[in-house]
Specification:
Helix 2 runs antiparallel to helix 3. The protein is α+β, with helices and mostly antiparallel strands. It contains 10 helices and 27 strands. The chain has a 4-stranded antiparallel β-sheet with strand order 13-21-20-14. Among the domains are: about 150 residues, no CATH class; about 90 residues, Resuscitation-promoting factor rpfb fold, CATH 2.20.230. The longest helix has about 55 residues.
Length: about 500
């Protein structure tokens, strides 16, 4: 009985336990269902997303989600996108003007340069190219990743603004050619025994690098503006105050010439005209070749006698060596530093041996340095059979100082063997001298310095060697003609056979 009463109670307890167990399992079941549903949703989302990315990547034109400077360009071809952007952004640059200026007030100088002439503007083509290629390059996975990013966040490509530095440099060079001014030295000329001195002028030279920095600041504003030219002031080498000291005749020399060769005399005058009035600054080197002008017909010169391979032939600017030789002697009398001097190949008659100075092409020049503290001025002229060179400057030596140059004959160079030319048109025994050679020599020059009539210095100054030239002769080789009466005959009647003539 007792057992029967316990059974309903046990059944009730078991039922309650089953409810409790079910209550404990219910959250797990719900969680599992939720997870399953989430998986289904995510899977479905990814499938949809993949489909959308594939559709995006299959589209023509620039892909969806891409903008340039915030401008919508999706679906446009490259050409259409360029046209759209240029319509807006090119208009911002066209007509903008960069103004370069220097100075103030009435002396201000200005140059105007259009922005587009130096390539200033937006790189529309580059931005559109980047937009079009976005999502079209790389592996399929890489393209898909880009497409997915475009769908999620989009992409804005910035338009790059700039200018062409090479075009800007070319424009600045053009402006500099007009802007730059060489410094002008004071000049001094002597007329009617008086010195006339001009004022010097400072120069200006554009600093292109610093000017370009000012230009860049204007271009970055993307609107018209002014940029100051940065310039360096250049000083002249010779001032009027310097030339005011050019009052003393510190060196002079003259040579003579005849009136027999008009072309040569023309060249003497032309050479002197080029050199006359030349001012050489302290420390500067004078070059005769650089100051004789163009030794051509255009330069005013004519054909006259010159040395060529030991002989005198006609050549352009013949005679200028007398100009430079006379100047050389004036320079050594002024005790200037001789930098370069070459003797002639053979001796000349207008200056003492060892005191000539030849010029030829680029391999022979007369150069001397102004070793004084003040400028020197060269006065040169040829007139009335005299070629005169005067050098004016500031005399630092005492009035009792005297300079002499002595030629010392060292050796004779004998003529080489005569050069013989055979002429079959001349008879045997005939001989004509076609070119008279000459002996050569070696000489040295010594510089003697006197103070108050007393020799204080006697030193070697220079050496020169003049080559010898061979006589050139022409001799005949033609046999004299003979008559029958003069021709020997043997007993057999065969003329000259017995004399062995073949």
């Amino acid at each position: 009985m007792e057992q029967e009463r316990k059974r309903p109670r046990q059944q009730k307890q078991q039922k309650m336990q089953r409810k409790k167990d079910y209550g404990n399992k219910k959250p797990l079941v719900i969680a599992a269902v939720v997870v399953l549903l989430a998986v289904v949703v995510v899977f479905g989302y990814h499938q949809v997303h993949k489909a959308k990315v594939r559709d995006l990547l299959a589209a023509e034109g620039i892909y969806q989600g891409i903008t340039i400077n915030g401008e919508e360009v999706a679906g446009l071809s490259e050409e259409a996108a360029i046209a759209k952007l240029q319509e807006k952004y090119k208009a911002e640059i066209v007509g903008q003007i960069l103004t370069l200026h220097y100075g103030e007030g009435e002396e201000e100088q200005k140059w105007e340069i259009l922005f587009e002439d130096i390539g200033a503007g937006y790189d529309v083509e580059g931005a559109v190219k980047q937009a079009y290629l976005t999502g079209r390059e790389g592996t399929e996975e890489e393209r898909f990743a880009v497409g997915s990013e475009l769908l999620k966040n989009g992409m804005d490509i910035e338009l790059v603004y700039g200018y062409d530095e090479e075009l800007l440099d070319a424009k600045l060079t053009e402006v500099a050619e007009e802007f730059d001014q060489e410094a002008v030295d004071s000049t001094v000329v002597r007329k009617n025994g008086k010195f006339i001195i001009s004022d010097e002028q400072t120069g200006l030279m554009m600093d292109k690098e610093k000017t370009a920095e000012n230009v860049a600041a204007v271009l970055e504003t993307r609107i018209s503006g002014e940029a100051a030219i940065v310039a360096e002031v250049t000083e002249p080498k010779v001032t009027a105050e310097d030339n005011s000291h050019v009052t003393d005749l510190i060196g002079t020399y003259y040579t003579t010439y005849t009136n027999s060769d008009k072309n040569r005399n023309n060249n003497l005058a032309v050479g002197c005209n080029y050199i006359n009035g030349t001012v050489v600054a302290p420390g500067e080197v004078f070059s005769a070749n650089a100051n004789l002008g163009s030794q051509t017909a255009a330069g005013g010169y004519k054909n006259a006698g010159v040395y060529v391979n030991g002989k005198v032939e006609q050549g352009m600017a013949g005679g200028v060596c007398q100009v430079t030789s006379t100047l050389y002697n004036a320079a050594i009398m002024a005790e200037l530093d001789i930098v370069e001097r070459s003797p002639h190949s053979m001796t000349v008659g207008y200056v003492p041996l060892g005191r000539d100075a030849a010029v030829a092409g680029t391999y022979k020049d007369l150069k001397f340095r102004n070793n004084t503290e003040y400028p020197i001025m060269i006065e040169a002229y040829a007139s009335g059979g005299k070629l005169v060179m005067n050098i004016y400057g500031h005399e630092v030596h005492s009035s009792s100082r005297k300079v002499e140059f002595e030629t010392v004959y060292e050796a004779t160079i004998d003529k080489p063997a005569e050069i013989v030319t055979k002429d079959p048109e001349m008879l045997e025994g005939e001989r004509v001298v076609t070119s008279k050679g000459r002996t050569g020599c070696k000489v040295s020059v010594r510089k003697k310095v006197y103070e108050g009539g007393k020799l204080i210095s006697n030193e070697w100054f220079s050496s020169s060697s003049y080559r010898a030239a061979a006589d050139e002769v022409t001799v005949g080789t033609k046999k004299p003609e003979t008559t029958a009466a003069e021709t020997p005959t043997d007993v057999s009647g065969n003329a000259a056979e017995s004399f062995g003539i073949q």
